[in-house]
From TrEMBL:
It comes from Methylobacter tundripaludum. Residues 529-660 form the GGDEF domain. GO terms for molecular function: catalytic activity. Its cofactor is Mg(2+). InterPro entries: DGC-Regulatory_Protein, GGDEF_dom, Nucleotide_cyclase, PAS, PAS-assoc_C, PAS-like_dom_sf, Rev_trsase/Diguanyl_cyclase, Solute-binding_3/MltF_N. Keywords: Membrane, Transmembrane, Transmembrane helix. This is PAS domain S-box-containing protein/diguanylate cyclase (GGDEF)-like protein. The chain crosses the membrane at residues 26-45, 310-330. NCBIfam families: GGDEF (TIGR00254), sensory_box (TIGR00229). PROSITE patterns: GGDEF (PS50887), PAC (PS50113), PAS (PS50112).
Amino acid sequence: MHVLNQDRECLTSVLSPILKTDLSQAMHYLVSLFFFIFFVNVAAADDFDAKVSSQNKVDPVVQLTVKERAWLANHKKIRIAFDGSLPPYSFINDSGQLEGIAIEVMNALSKRLGITFETYPNTSWNKLYEAAAAHKVDVVATMVNRPDRRQLFIFTQPYLIKSLVIMTKRDNTTIKNQSDLVGKTVTMVKGYQFVDRVIKELPSVTPYFVVSMLDGLKAVSTEKADAAITFMATASYLQTKYLLTDLKIAAFYDLNRANESINESIAVRNDWPVLADILRKALVTISEEEMQNIHAKWVPSIKPSIDYELIRKMVAAFVIVLVLLLLWIARVRRQNKKIERSKTEVQTTNKILQALKSDLEHLVVKRTAELHSSEHKFRSLVENLRNEYFFYQRDCKGIFTYISPSITNILGYTVDEFMIHYHEYLTDNPINLKIDEYSQSIHSSPYQLEIYNAQKNIHWLEVTDTPVYDEYNKYIGVDGIVHDITLRKQADDRLIWLSYYDELTGLANRRLFADQLQQIISMAHRTNDSVSLFYMDLDRFKFVNDTMGHAIGDEVLKETARRISSTLRDSDIAARLGGDEFALLLPETDAAGAAPVAEKILKKLREPYIFDELEFTLGGSIGIAVYPQNTSSGETLVHFADTAMYHAKQGKHGVSFYSESMQQKKTIG
């Protein structure tokens, strides 16, 4: 930025070598100048980071047992040791004081538990380890949980999740992944267990052992080694503090592999299991947001990747300017290098470049802000919805290359289990038949699948795929988001069921009964059959409901529905129309066939109703209308059956078949 703001004479001096060379050399010089200007602008724009505002929050309460509280009351001071050579987790600063992520986490635990940690003065790993093994130290703040250490210590869950990264010179383009380290010289710090694993996994690597991770980074910077394998947070911290700007993170070696050989837990002396349980509970109360805020204080944020589409647009704009400039240079050479005119053209070009620079700055700043906003929204989505969503990546052949750990929360499978046995978990629902076709093609519309979870329960998943392309616009795979919609599907199915069935008794409701009535009458009309319709009302139900309560009334209705259903054929329809009124449809049944069914139902209803210590009897009144003898209209058939039921109830007949005289009496009454 400073170079571009110098005066015109400075830019003239920069461009003067171009005027003295041929066109190919001039183009090379100008392209180099452009990329210098561009990356300086990107570096300036990258400083546009959002700051997280701190909020005053009440510390969560750690739920302890009586035994645990008594133990803490008797152990107010607990001796703790910190490794002083593990920045930014725990280290000695320039003032000789301990600081880092682990120290802040321990301070938070101390505040939550109301205890005092007394820091062991020696921060040498070997010395503090010996002291802890001899119970001269009660707690070690950071220790990897290894089998050989479990005889001496009790470990909490890991709370410092670390990633191993490969660091190279910024201009190194030969190392892009783990396999590119073959035959290379790689710096490693003696004493770390992951070093043995790296040497075992990559036997052709030439190890360059150093005392500290800072020495390893400096060895790469001075080209004594091709790469360094170190912790990402440590590399970022040291790179920022010691201005190792010529280095970059070339690739991940291990990406946040939880519970493996690089993650740090709290180690407690083996005769204090109660303290280990207390610290485990206290760690759980530190929210992910609080832990992220602690990390953000010590670990510089990773810059977003460059938008190649934006670069292509900027390069295209610059090429246009570059071509115009080269044509101008050729014209100057043909006119015997007229210096005065060259100066005028350089000044004009300077204005063009300044305008272009301003536009580029605006575009980069805007795009950077958009990327930060997108990143924040994505992270919030992952943290807040990890019990509903998981994320995956597939290559162009449909093979999984990544699945987010939240799949364990949703389906109960580990990431490795799901990658290997995915097809075995699918149900035989026909909706699953097109999944392989979707996974091997560019399918952007959401689709659904049905799958078993680890407990063999069925889950419904909604999948949205987004195609991914490389810098040459070639399709290379998909990024996918999977939403567990099981509860939504169950709710939808429940709503559909409730729209056709009575919630209390499980019988058809008035809507479904009306639909079935029309269908059965239409069928009877085609086959020339009879249909009997029963309209039934419980006797003395109001007395039971008023004196014994609505709960008993509901139980009576459910038991009545069960008794009615037990007397009917599979082809018959039973419905609750409301209150204590029921309706029955008996296809292919005339009056002679309906009579014994009605008597059987009444006999069932007269049997005692027994609920807890209550016992009572009820009865019923049934009105029957028959299609087509009484009417050919379904609606009228219901009305006639209701009229017959009214007649049966008034005369205490139990069962009455509809006749025209009933309608006349009801009208007169």
